Amino acid sequence: MTGRGRRLAAGPGLPAKLAVLLLLGVLIAAPLFTILAETLRPDTLVAWRDVLASRLSRNLFWLPLANTLTLGFGVAAGCVVIGGFLAWLVVMTDMPCRRTIGLMATLPFMIPSFATALAWGSLFRNARVGGDVGFLAGLGLDVPDWLAWGIVPTMIVMIAHYYSLAFTVIAAALATVNSDLVEAAQLAGARRRRILFGIVLPIALPAVVAGASLTFAGAVSNFAAPALLGLPVRMQTLATRLFGMIEIGQTARGYVIAVMLIAVSAAFLWLGNRVISGRRSFATVTGKGGRSKRLPLGGARLPLCGVAFAICLATTIVPVVILVASSLAPASSALFSNWTLHYWTGQSAATIAQGQPGIRHNPAILLSSAVTIGLGVVVAFTASAVGLLVAHVLARYRNGPLVAIINQLGFLPLLVPGIAFGAAYIALFGAPIGPFPALYGSFAMLVLAATAYLVPFAVQTGRAVIAQVSGDLDESARLTGAGFVRRLFAITVPLAVRGISAGALIVFVKIIRDLSLVVLLFTPTTPLLSVLAYRYASEGFTQFANAITVVILVISIAATLLANRLQKKSQPWLKD
């Protein structure tokens, strides 16, 4: 077969496909392959025995695995129950204030999990590990250890953070339930409970499984909440154990734990997808129009509305109020008295926080702010560019084995916990590669790791914006001789600039509030706000940690609101 024949057999756009495949191979496949290969070298194979089958393995792996799975299943169950309950109320019932509750139920995921964990500590921290106690202990209440530290508060914090995912997925599924089915059941005399468990729940089962899978994967990969609420009492998860191994230089054991963490997270995501794909008879949207008929709650309307509001307030407003109050209070034990602006604008004082100046005059915090915002801007641009390239190939060249490989690689980071992905980048770029120097500790490594990790989100955004541009325009330009890059930047980008900007802002928000990915890549030369907040909290400077977290929240919420506004302008169907 001639060279032209081979190109035709591979389908159109072969150069673009190969370029994108090479790019994803370097950014995603190579680090993950390297971390596995590092554990299979003759001098590191012993690390597998140390982790899995030695006298050390109980503490190195099996106990952290048990804690990780307990948190994963507990968080998944809690998120499905709470998210599904709120989704049912908002979508299918006549409860008042549904729109407000629906909006509030999507907000907790905007709040970093370490922010919720810090707020929990400011309320419930007791004297078990020394240092400043929380507000309740300051009032003289006896806060039990199981509520202040360990697996219970960690699980509660992660449920409060992740239930938004389950709510969003389940609400979208419930919105497609044909009201004729519900109305027919009501006419047949079925009670509300029978309708819920006999019709609504089976139809929404794929969304329930998807929500459980997503929240399970988020919980097992979460580093912040177990580190802040578990490590002080020596409760380890796979994520915190991985961090500890890398921190003390036992990289081989750390890489083994990273591989196992990836396997656990990917296995349950795969299992969830398998359950969903194994059942096909969920079609409830037909060509026949249906009336929206909500289930009457009768006398339970106001009580259920009160419960829904309480859940939303406890997971959105309360943590933010506690963080702000703690950043103004001289101690967490007195959150709402003797407020001071020292932690924000104060100069160095020997009697306060060991002489640490407030945010405005603190060079470490100011440098971290600049590096964090700079990283967010650069990654927003690079991830959006990579995502647009991948999405363009997937949208314009839909067939062929290369497209399938590109699609799999583009979404592979979703299966990899952030801290394990950071370890993979240390394995690949932590040492020189030929003429290229080691990147560990450099801003470039942060950019590369964050770009690769956020590619799936950028690809999803890229698909949405490319869908707005007719393929006829691209085909016409191709027939006139315009190349791939020329068509992309002369047609697609100008016509979909609002959607691209919205996607870039979403990437910006994700990276500036991320801790799991960057906690292993953090060095004094590349300080970041999220890691600095964690360090301050670990060292007992709670007010500084909470003040930094408030700064992250303000930036995140402002960028998210701007992104939502741009999305509604670029995609009119998102408007009410």
Secondary-structure map:
Blueprint: H1 3-10, H2 14-38, H3 46-52, H4 57-92, H5 98-105, H6 113-124, H7 135-138, H8 145-148, H9 151-174, H10 179-187, H11 192-203, H12 205-221, H13 224-229, H14 238-247, H15 251-277, H16 301-315, H17 317-328, H18 342-345, H19 363-396, H20 401-411, H21 418-429, H22 443-453, H23 455-466, H24 471-479, H25 484-495, H26 497-512, H27 529-538, H28 542-570
Helix pairs in contact: 2-19, 2-20, 2-21, 3-4, 3-15, 4-5, 4-9, 4-12, 4-14, 5-16, 6-9, 6-17, 6-28, 9-12, 10-11, 12-15, 14-15, 15-21, 17-28, 19-20, 19-22, 19-23, 19-26, 23-26, 24-25, 26-28, 27-28
Count the DSSP helices: 28
Sum up the overall morphology in one term: globular
**Biggest beta-sheet profile:** none
Computed structural class: mainly alpha
Radius of gyration: 25 Å
Helical amount: 55-70%
Q: How many DSSP E strands?
A: 0
Low-confidence stretches: 3-9, 279-291, 570-576
Q: What proportion of the residues form beta strands (DSSP E)?
A: under 5%
Head-to-tail CA distance between termini: 56 Å
Order of helices and strands: HHHHHHHHHHHHHHHHHHHHHHHHHHHH
Mean pLDDT: 83
Short description:
The protein is mainly α. The chain contains 28 helices and no strands.
What features would you highlight for this structure?
576 residues; mainly alpha; 28 helices; disordered N terminus
Model description:
The protein is built from 28 helices and no strands. It is an all-alpha fold. Helix 6 crosses helix 17. The chain is globular, with a radius of gyration of 25 Å. 48% of the residues are buried.
